[in-house]
Hints:
The structure holds 2 protein chains of 2 kinds.
Chain A lengths: L9 H10 L1 H5 L8 E8 L3 H4 L6 E3 L2 E7 L6 E10 L2 E6 L3 H14 L3 E3 L4 H14 L3 E9 L15 E6 L3 H12 L2 E9 L2 E6 L3 E4 L4 H27 L1 E9 L2 E9 L1 E4 L6 H8 L19 E9 L4 E8 L5 E7 L2 E8 L3 H14 L5 E4 H5 L2
Antiparallel strand pairs in A: 1-5, 1-6, 1-11, 2-3, 3-4, 4-5, 7-8, 7-9, 9-10, 10-11, 12-13, 14-18, 14-19, 15-16, 16-17, 17-18
Helix pairs in contact in A: 5-7, 7-9
Chain B lengths: L1 H14 L2 H24 L1 H25 L15 E5 L12 E5 L4 E7 L6 H16 L2 H4 L8 E9 H13 L5 E6 L4 E4 L6 H6 L5 H6 L3 E2 L13 H5 L12 E2 L1 H11 L5 H17 L3 E3 L5 E3 L6 H53 L1
Helix pairs in contact in B: 2-12, 3-12, 10-11
Amino acid sequence: MKLPVKDYTLDSFLETIAENMDEIFGQDEQRKWLKTYLMYTDDEWLDLFQQYKPMKLGELFHIVMPFEEDGGSADYYVYEIAKGMLMFFTTSKRTEYTETLKEFVRHTQGITQMWLPPESFEKVINYLLSTYSANIYSFITKRHWSSKYPAKLRSDFTRMIHYSGDDASYTLKELQELYGVLPSLVDLKIGSDKIRVTNDGLFMIRTINRKMLRLVVEVIDRILAEQVRLRGVSRQVEYTSKPLTVGNIQLNVSSIMSGRISLNTKLSAHLMEKLFKGFEDEEVGRTAEGTEVSEFSFIDTSIREGSLSFSATVIDEDKGTIFGLSGNENEMILVPKHRITFESFIRFFRLVNETLDDSSNLLLFSEQVAR
Amino acid sequence: MNKLQDEEGEFLKKLGLADLQREYKQEKDGIISKIEREYETNSQLYENKSIGIKEDKFHKEVLNAAIFPFVQRGLLPQTLDYVYVRSSPLSERKLKNVDFLIVSPSKKIAIFGEAKQSVNDPSRIIDEMKQRIAVINTNLDYVEKYITPISKIEYVLVVRSFDANNMSKAIARSSANIILWHVGLQEQKLSIFVPSTSAERRASLMHYDDKLNRALSEVSTSTELRTFFPESHPVTKMELLTGIDKGRDDHFTLNEVKSFVKQELDNLSEQEIDIHTKEIIEQAIKINFVRQTEDGNYKIQSRFKKPSSRYEELKEKWIKYSLEIEKQEKVSSEIKLLKDKLMEKKRTIYKTLEDFPKED
């Protein structure tokens, strides 16, 4: 995907894509999809990509990431839709994306793939169904055995259902009710146009036209507020140390802002043990694309049964972040310690949401205090 | 080994008599195999070491819960003006003392606190606290490193909520002016204990600053804050190494360890930070959890990549190492006793031999 080098606004960028469809996506049956990956980043996100020498094209940036020694590369056009919320447009294949942007994001502090909590993801799907009279023709739904989402049948089983069929819009609701599964990937048809959305913040469109391009931006706009909030909260979880001078005495005064995950369903000692042991290598938190999103290690753990309380040191194995975790049956406190980067807290919140409580909420410690 | 062999040879020479030498060798072999067997078969020895690590964790939880409200923003009223200074005050004077120091820079109040994860014998705890208070009082120049002039020094004991009643009664009965805080782990709350004594006695068991008394009523807290303190268990002090190379190169530097230590041990001097940093690395090398690389950096020595698996390995390596040291010390001390016994025997024999000709 190469676009003429000039200054773009988001509108003119989308216009250019629509006007040069055949050139960009090919004309044959196997034409490429346009993919939009959503990412949360630090405010100074351009610094993260310095090694790739981003080229400014008006409101967008062009970043070329090499994936092979023989010169292969993937092109990304980046638009900052809100502070630290990026849209990466690309036609790269999944493997190319995995080798480039995904790998980069996995090990770089200050950036992570966006995650749409169940409520936001549902909002996206419902918006497409109601506003665009979309029809779901395929989806993937999942349930972890420890999930508290109501299920009529065998609620303590881990399951994943991949369904294709013209009645998928109905089936999704039925399976959700019966098996307590939540969608992670949904394919929809809008007339003859096709769109795929995942809870990892991936939007793929097969049919490239003005309507579909606009739609992607419009849908993202619907969920932006919650995403901005999530990023904002996690960025405020921090550790600072400031010098304090009183007379001749100089002290370093530490202060922290902890995070808090409030739970709607009560935790048990058994569940905490499972969490601390990484659910014994079960396939937890796999994304629609089958990759791991939550690689956390829990060390120096303690769990008191009965009136539950627990604590642990948590290490984000991908990012290197170290934080403390304590809590009781109603909440978890995330205490920032070393190598803090905001996305570790989002990733951890996702792990809790997908394995323990799908209606949990990430807040600042002080938010609860103020209640 | 050579030194040991030399010592052994020298001792045998000193012992002289062939019978005694034989007896020594036999008994020594017996001692070694007895102790070897004991350490191989007695799983309780391993278990006890493991319990030691757990107990340190429980102590850390109570201690963290005591200082957390003074570090977490927005928990105590900003105008209150109390800050957490450091753990293990007086440690640089090689004096075993309390667990933490909190000061009010504007009110010139110092609060020394001790955390107890369990209370078996309240009066013993009070006696210990009294001794520590006496040490603090003979080191007022130390307190002045953190506030000057000192208007007031207060002493706090922090216990779990279910121990608070017992502890409070013992304090009230004693002559000590010790303020009691208690931590509810399930509720994740820290509170001051208000004793039901005469108003006059109560005043000496509460903070002078009434605003602080009021603020310390079921204040939210967390049992997580610092990963380790200067007097923490060696395993606790090494635990951060399990993830030091995550999201980074395989190798790590002394400075990376130092930056962890610096943040964990608030307000300790640069010199002390260096001592603790070196100690952590040296200990980890000794137990074969870390090795030094050719470029002078360090690398984790583990079968595992995952920090949680490494942590289990770290505990195992430390326990095995410390049991080995303990075993060797036990062997040495029993052999020393044996040596003393045989030398004594020799003296008796010689005395007899010397006496014999005279009698003859």
